[in-house]
Amino acid sequence: MGAEVGRKCKPRGANLRKGKEARHGIAADGRRSANSCSSGSESTKGGGGGAPLSVDQQVEWLLSHLQPCETADRRRQAVMDQVSGIVSSYLGRQLFACGSFPLRTYLADGDLDLVLFCGPCPSSADHGHPDHELLKVSSALCLDVLRQNDGAGYSSVRNVNFVNARTRIVTCIVGSLSVDITVNQIGSLAAALLLEEADRRVRDHLIKRSVLLLKAWGLHEAPRYAGITQPVFGAKATGLTSYALSIMVLRLFALNACELRTPTEVLLAFFREYSDFDWDNLCVTLSGSKPLSASGGSGVAGGGSDQHKFAALVSHLRSKIAQAKEGAVAAAAGAPPERFQHRFCNIQDPLNDTNNLGHSVSLPVLRSLISALAKGRQHLEALL
Length: 384
Hints:
Shape: globular
Number of helices: 11
Oligomer: single chain
CATH class of the largest domain: Mainly Alpha
Order of helices and strands: HHHEHEHEEEHHHHEEHEEH
Distance between the termini: 44 Å
Number of strands: 9
CATH architecture of the largest domain: Orthogonal Bundle
CATH topology of the largest domain: Poly(a)-polymerase, middle domain
Structural class: alpha+beta
Strand order of the largest sheet: 1-2-5-4-3
Largest sheet: 5 strands, mixed
């Protein structure tokens, strides 16, 4: 499955960019610098000082500056190659990209997510266990730092940490980019494939662009609407993970594919759907809202079996995951429990009925998110 993701989710320069826009005014982090763009007031006017731009045009202008460019892609690829080279030299194993990087839906300060596969866990609790492999990854990175610093060179790797979380990870910073490494997370690669293939079935990369727009809204606008200082997205801030957000967006297309044509329409649909959602009693699934009271021992009833626009794709990927787990790769350490665990925010992983993608969301953040969604809806409806 790792090789399949490498083929299908490799960052492509034309994916989310349009012509010459990607070649001018690139900042040091790979994005356009503010100084290279028109001023904020000019962004709402036509190029010749004519009529104000429509809301759709303003959103497209914003997306043209949010979307990753080739410089940003190359920077992340270079960091991935560096970390992968270190791990390969010490462990002899390859790292794969997952998350927002291969999908090109990352913001400038987003993490780089990598996954290592070490094969099935033997009966012994020692060699080959994912936790031990993660410790080896941590040791390899630390040893490389020592080796570089003892010589004439200087290592750009720093702040190496082993995080004992629900899914155990090793984190580090390379240059100014935060890197997260997990072991045997087949679901992470399958999730990237799901979103990549779903996006290809919708014109103009509308799914990816909508996810990117909502990430920026959650980082910059939602806290202001909710009167808080922290973002509502990101597990580290007890908010929605990137994958959870993506599934919430994908659900809109699964249920309303014919009605959504622009990122603005998706944004408004997102506001309307989830500001009024009954989070206390319902679970978000690709096939619709499912009552939590009907959840069974293996997940939310009907969550993975109902028909929707992407049902065939989901079924195919679920079978691939099952084959991989029965074959060369075992289930990861910290894998989801056998039962769907109810939380304040309940979002079912379409690829794993028992995985609640909203597990990281705290009640205060959920309340802030609902408030921000409601106010965002009012504001956008007033503009339209």
